[in-house]
């Protein structure tokens, strides 16, 4: 019976160790998953051997000891089957985690794809908004340029009118100058004529005086 109990103690320690490995396996890095799986398989194999040893010892027991030990062996076998199923589930989870690490999680890939599409859509909307703003700015600049051009045309038209008015004024002034020149020339001619007449009258008057003096002196 002592040997049977030793097998029980070793089995219990193995099962506790296996359960701890199963509990902490998900926290391991992907590179350590394979080593953890092999360690669990090794401990399961050793636990199965211990149950086999207990079954052999069970055959050697008699009476009450055998009746007392047999249910425990069946319990250990059922427990080991459950641990083995948990181990397979753990291995499947680790394999899936490794696959996701290598290939990516489809759900995450879909989320990433949707996020990328959303980012591209937002980027496209932003580019469209920027293009619209640039178009509006260009339209505003065109309107401003048109307004400036219209103002310049109005200024040029006003300056042209001023130039035309100045030209007309100059032409009128030139006409007035021509008339003034003609008037001055006429006045000059009249002045010369009057001067000649006056000179002639003076000469005639002097001649008459001289003639009168001569006549008086000759008598």
From TrEMBL:
Residue spans crossing the bilayer: 196-215
One MF term in the entry's GO annotations: SNARE binding
Keyword Chaperone: no
Gene3D superfamilies per the UniProt record, alphabetical: 1.20.5.110, t-snare proteins (1.20.58.400)
SUPFAM superfamilies: SNARE fusion complex (SSF58038), t-snare proteins (SSF47661)
Record's subcellular location: Endomembrane system
Ranges where the T-SNARE coiled-coil homology domain occurs: 120-187
PANTHER family, sorted: VESICLE TRANSPORT THROUGH INTERACTION WITH T-SNARES HOMOLOG 1A (PTHR21230:SF26), VESICLE TRANSPORT V-SNARE PROTEIN VTI1-RELATED (PTHR21230)
Name of the featured protein: Vesicle transport V-snare protein
Organism: Coemansia spiralis
Lineage: Eukaryota, Fungi, Fungi incertae sedis, Zoopagomycota, Kickxellomycotina
């Amino acid at each position: 019976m002592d040997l049977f109990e030793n097998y029980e103690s070793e089995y219990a320690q193995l099962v506790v160790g296996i359960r701890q490995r199963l509990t902490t396996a998900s926290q391991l890095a992907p590179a350590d998953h394979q080593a953890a799986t092999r360690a669990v398989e090794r401990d399961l194999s050793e636990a199965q051997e211990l149950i086999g040893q207990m079954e052999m010892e069970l055959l050697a027991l008699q009476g009450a000891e055998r009746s007392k030990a047999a249910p425990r062996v069946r319990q250990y076998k059922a427990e080991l089957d459950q641990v083995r199923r948990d181990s397979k589930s753990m291995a499947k989870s680790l394999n899936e985690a490794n696959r996701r690490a290598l290939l990516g999680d489809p759900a995450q890939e879909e989320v990433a794809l949707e996020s990328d599409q959303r980012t591209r859509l937002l980027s496209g909307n932003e580019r469209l908004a920027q293009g619209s703003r640039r178009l509006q700015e260009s339209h505003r600049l065109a309107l401003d340029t048109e307004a400036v051009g219209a103002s310049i045309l109005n200024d040029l038209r006003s300056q042209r009118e001023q130039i035309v008015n100045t030209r007309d004024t100059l032409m009128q002034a030139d006409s007035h100058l021509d008339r003034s020149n003609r008037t001055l020339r006429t006045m000059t001619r009249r002045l010369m004529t009057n001067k000649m007449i006056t000179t002639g009258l003076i000469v005639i008057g002097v001649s008459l005086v001289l003639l009168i003096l001569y006549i008086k002196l000759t008598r």
